[in-house]
Structure formats: C-alpha cells, structure tokens
Cytidylate kinase
Amino acid sequence: MKPIRPFHQTPVITIDGPTASGKGTVAALVAAHLGFHLLDSGALYRLAALASLRYAIQTDDADALAALINDLHITFREGLAQLDGVDVSAEIRKEEIGNRASAIAVHAPVRAALVARQRAFRKEPGLVADGRDMGTVIFQDATLKVFLTASAEARAARRYKQLIQKGISANIDDLLRDLRERDERDSQRAAAPLKPAADARLLDTSSLSVDQTVEQVVQWYQSVVVKS
Ligand code: DC
C-alpha cells in the first residue's frame, strides 16, 4: 500500500520568472497535464492593486495596503478572479494594474499579508505555483523549482501579441520600456526580490515553444518524483 504523505509534503512545482516570461501559460498547462491545482500569485497582487485603486489607497502606504489585503474578499472560480463577488479577470490584466501590482509588491507588509492566502492553495494531489518568489519564499520546500527566463525583446514581443489578440491596442516600445522598469523594480526590491532559488532549474524560453517548455517542466518533475 502507498504511504500517505503528510500534508506539508503535498507536491508543489514552483515556476518563477520575470514579466511575460510565459510562466502563467506554462504553469496552467503543466497543472492541467498533471491534474494539479494552480496558483497564479501575480493575480493576487493584481487584485490587491485593483482594490487599492478603488479604495484610493496610495501605493506607498504599506500599512494601509496590508490592512486592505487582510479584509479582501477574493475567490478564484473556473479561471475567473472575483473581488467582492464580482468578476474582475479582464480588469486585472491591464498593464496599468500590472504596474501598480509591481509598485505595491515592494512592501514587506503587503507581501506578508499575502503569504497565508498563497500557501492555502497547496492541496492534494499537488500544486503548480507561478510568480516571483514561489521557490525562494512561499514554497521553499517545493518538489521542483523552475526559473524561466527570456530576453526582454522576446518577452515584449509575446506581450504585444497577447494584447493584440485580445483586441487591446499596444505599442511595442512602450511595452519594452515598462517591462524593463518592472524587471528592475521586481529584482532590486529588498523584500523577496525576483531571483532564482539556489536549487531552481533555469530554463531560457526565448527560442522554445510553449509545448517544448511544458514538456521540459513535466519531464523534470517526473524525474524528481521517480528519484524520491
Ligand atoms: O506575474 P504578474 O505580472 O501577474 O505580476 C504582477 C506584479 O505582481 C509583478 O510585477 C510583481 C508582483 N508579484 C510579486 O511581487 N510576487 C509574486 N509572487 C507575483 C507577482
């Protein structure tokens, strides 16, 4: 008979990386392939950013932001993100909200207020979590840690394509500038900066298709699970 794993050993695959590195798409496909739950941690930061805009809380007011987050009523259902019971999935994808999310994410109290909500996603049969600090902070004991990279140009081109496909107008030079600014802020902040965990596997996706990237992550996971 198979031994029952203690709760804290529920498998987790962390997929971290910079803006538009493809982590969201890859994480969703890996989760679907393995039948695992999915945590898009960036969506939590985006929901907090949207709420702060609605309640007119300044992006530098760390304590007010943390208090707001503690009171937020957030639900994820069938891929939809809800704030106070209202679907805001499209709204949180706007560049303006992404930039605001990056701005509020620099504060340690904001990050601390989101820790428990993120860890609550760890449920059987397993979790794929994507973000910036999934492997370094939130799930330090993850079964597999992946850090995706891609050149800024490749990422800007992907983001451009995504936006155009959604019918949202975009300018590639503006996207590249915003993306570099966000990379800089996300990786230079003192609280949980964007960086690969010491035990993360790096994967440069500049010239890989989504399918190739997913295949590599699944293969790594299977090799880790077989070994343990
Ligand atoms: O992954 P994303 O673009 O949806 O994330 C939006 C911002 O949220 C990102 O620029 C920085 C912040 N973020 C973070 O600091 N830590 C995470 N785990 C996820 C997102």
